[in-house]
Specification:
It is a single chain. Helices cover 53% and strands 0% of the residues. The protein contains ten helices and no strands. It has two domains: 74 residues, Serine Threonine Protein Phosphatase 5, Tetratricopeptide repeat; 65 residues, Alpha Horseshoe (Serine Threonine Protein Phosphatase 5, Tetratricopeptide repeat). The chain has 174 residues and is mainly α. The N and C termini lie far apart (49 Å). Helix 1 packs parallel to helix 3, helix 3 runs antiparallel to helix 4 and helix 5 runs parallel beside helix 7. InterPro entries: ANKRD_45/46/60, Ankyrin_rpt, Ankyrin_rpt-contain_sf. Keywords: ANK repeat. It holds the Pfam family Ank_2. This is Ankyrin repeat domain-containing protein. It comes from Stutzerimonas decontaminans.
Length: 174
């Protein structure tokens, strides 16, 4: 395994082009091709230059089948990108309840935090995603948890003017 201080090997243009095609498969939801490559030994946790894993790309773009294939081949639902975001946080941001359910079924931490301490529940609250708030709370998300600045999901909803989320969080936080 490489250490962070060791230089990375130079990759030729053909290898770089192939890698970009692989990330495009995830981004575009080509689960069949991803499955073939995974069966041939491609690492399920392969990441691009931004630290986005194949699962991050597939899940962020709403590709359930491709995400399921990656998860079934060992993709880590906790793997964060260089910005500290997880697939679960991305799915909450996008409002994708089906993806959130899939990620949690495969081991994503409902209380997992981004670098700024925000949870998926806080992301859902910010964008007034009440169905996601209800589901995450039913799965054990703590509505009273706070981020690095001390803000809770309720505070995030208030700050963003997410009135329905605010009302719901007041009820479930009581």
């Amino acid at each position: 395994m490489s250490h962070p201080t060791e230089p990375l090997p130079e990759l030729d243009d053909a290898t770089l082009a192939f890698a970009e095609q692989v990330f495009d498969c995830a981004r575009n939801g080509d689960g069949a091709r991803l499955g073939e490559l995974l069966d041939q030994g491609m690492p399920a946790n392969l990441c691009n230059h931004a630290g986005d894993s194949l699962l991050m790309l597939a899940s962020y773009h709403g590709h359930i089948v491709a995400s399921r294939i990656l998860l079934e081949h060992g993709a880590d639902p906790q793997l964060r990108n260089r910005r500290g975001h997880s697939p679960l946080a991305g799915a909450a941001f996008k409002g994708d309840l089906a993806m959130i359910k899939l990620l949690l079924e495969h081991g994503a931490d409902v209380e997992g935090r981004c670098e700024d301490g925000k949870t998926a529940l806080m992301m859902a609250a910010m964008f007034n995603r009440t169905a996601i708030i209800e589901y995450l709370a039913s799965q054990g998300a703590d509505p009273l948890a706070s981020d690095a600045s001390g803000a809770t999901a309720l505070a995030a909803a208030r700050m963003m003017g997410a009135a329905d989320a605010e009302t719901l969080l007041q009820r479930i936080s009581a």
